[in-house]
Backbone:
């Protein structure tokens, strides 16, 4: 298949991508999945390498997002794009057009989220898509962010995940294990977050299958506006 007809679907982590891999099996061709890692630095490096090797027809950057708008509940699918073609393809039931803020840090507390909302006016926060959009704009590749709310604006995360990242910006399993061992009372909250994010990524996978299917059926040529 001509790479210009390929949809490049970017996730930070495999746990975000896994439900989509299962959902798309034997159903949609012309999709390449790229894991870019956590944070804009890792995403920029890995994404730039990927498109230098094979230029896609369009890009969808996806995964989890933290809510900044209190009206957005966990499991809500969110969309942002300047591409008219991709915006049309993403008009599916339950998907909400919003504005994302890309940040280097995870918004951990309700106060963090409230301050970000006040400072940026954004509806949700993520860590990679802003960097990917910038590169796509430089290369004239249409790009859309399609993400799902994992934690709402009015809830605190059970741990400060920023403190559990290594020098490369990725979550450090050893630090995470030590944090759990030293704070066993956090385990129920972590398990609840795990269940919530699992349901959210399943919902995201369903939305991505529908959106990717519409992009393929409507023809990638229609995506040659701007991303």
Residues:
């Amino acid at each position: 298949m001509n790479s210009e007809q390929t949809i490049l679907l970017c996730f930070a982590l495999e746990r975000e991508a896994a439900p989509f891999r299962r959902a798309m099996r034997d159903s949609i061709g012309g999709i390449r999945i790229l894991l870019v890692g956590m944070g804009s630095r890792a995403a920029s490096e890995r994404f730039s390498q990927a498109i230098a090797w094979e230029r896609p027809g369009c890009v969808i950057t996806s995964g989890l997002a933290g809510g900044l708008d209190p009206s957005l509940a966990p499991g809500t699918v969110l969309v942002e794009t300047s591409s008219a073609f991709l915006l049309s393809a993403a008009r599916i039931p339950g998907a909400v057009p919003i504005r994302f803020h890309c940040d280097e840090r995870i918004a951990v507390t309700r106060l963090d989220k409230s301050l970000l909302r006040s400072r940026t006016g954004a509806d949700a926060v993520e860590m990679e898509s802003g960097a990917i959009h910038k590169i796509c704009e430089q290369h004239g590749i249409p790009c859309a962010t399609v993400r799902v709310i994992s934690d709402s604006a009015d809830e605190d995360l059970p741990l400060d995940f920023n403190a559990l990242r290594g020098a490369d910006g990725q979550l450090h399993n050893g630090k995470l294990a030590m944090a759990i061992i030293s704070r066993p009372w956090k385990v129920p909250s972590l398990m609840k977050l795990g269940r919530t994010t699992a349901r959210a990524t399943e919902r995201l996978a369903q939305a991505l299958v529908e959106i990717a299917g519409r992009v393929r059926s409507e023809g990638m040529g229609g995506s040659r506006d701007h991303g």
